[in-house]
Design goal:
Number of helices: 8
Largest sheet: 7 strands, parallel
Order of helices and strands: EHEEHEHEHEHEHHH
Helix content: 40-55%
Strand order of the largest sheet: 3-2-1-4-5-6-7
Strand content: 5-15%
Low-confidence stretches: none
Shape: globular
Length: about 240
């Protein structure tokens, strides 16, 4: 998959990783970059084409799909974090997590998949697809685990039309979503560069940082050992 000359659509493009994706795609010579969001008037990246798209609203998805012609690459980046526990007072925010990360990603993919034959999809998942660290991560983690499974399933279903499906998994990019955490964070531009390099190289999965690499490696071990000191395990420390 080559980015130069490609027509690309990015969800959640007004800030954070989404904005960094749009900037990098323009810089790499993409022919058209549809930068989408619920408030396209906030999208001001030079060279991008702002487009309204709320991935939790089917009418909005259908309207965006009708305005976009040919497409080579779809980047499913839009996301939220409600800090919802699974056993809280109500499930409203857990449903919002799934409506965004699972159903939103799936519905956008279904809308654009027919025009992505020979093209590519990049889904932004998370290290939290594979672990949790506390109650306020549980709704997000469950939804991201579902999105990881969705990514793997869509890859198989689209193989016949030669659509590459790549996952970007990361933990700690310096975005608004991670602003409350006083820990080292990667610049969004660095994560995006790694993701786009992986996409062009045909990788099925791009691991965005050492934390995520440690989490994935730990899956082969005893979960009791991992969760005994989850923060230490994440950052490569021993106890």
């Amino acid at each position: 998959m080559q980015i130069t000359g490609a027509k690309v659509l990015v969800t959640g493009a007004n800030r954070g990783l989404g904005k960094a994706f749009v900037e990098a795609l323009v810089a790499r010579g993409a022919d058209t970059v549809y930068a989408t969001g619920r408030r396209p008037e906030l999208i001001d990246t030079p060279g991008a084409t702002p487009l309204h798209l709320d991935i939790t609203d089917m009418a909005s998805i259908e309207a965006a799909a009708s305005r976009v012609g040919e497409l080579d690459i779809l980047i499913n980046n839009a996301g939220i974090s409600t800090r919802a526990p699974l056993l809280g007072d109500n499930l409203d925010n857990v449903r919002r997590e799934f409506d965004t990360h699972f159903w939103g990603t799936l519905n956008v993919t279904r809308a654009f998949a027919p025009r992505l034959a020979g093209g590519a999809i990049l889904n932004v998942i998370s290290a939290l697809s594979w672990y949790v660290y506390g109650p306020d991560s549980n709704g997000y983690a469950a939804a991201k685990a579902a999105e990881w499974s969705l990514t793997n399933g869509v890859r198989i279903e689209l193989a016949a039309q030669k659509t590459q499906v790549t996952a970007l998994a990361l933990a700690i990019a310096d975005t608004d979503m991670m602003a409350a955490y006083d820990i080292p964070k990667l610049p969004p531009a660095d994560v995006v560069a790694m993701a786009l390099d992986g996409l062009e190289a045909g990788k099925l999965e791009v691991i965005g940082d050492p934390v995520t690499a440690n989490v994935k490696a730990a899956l082969a071990g005893d979960p009791a050992t991992f969760y005994a000191d989850v923060q230490g395990a994440l950052f490569g420390k021993t106890t």
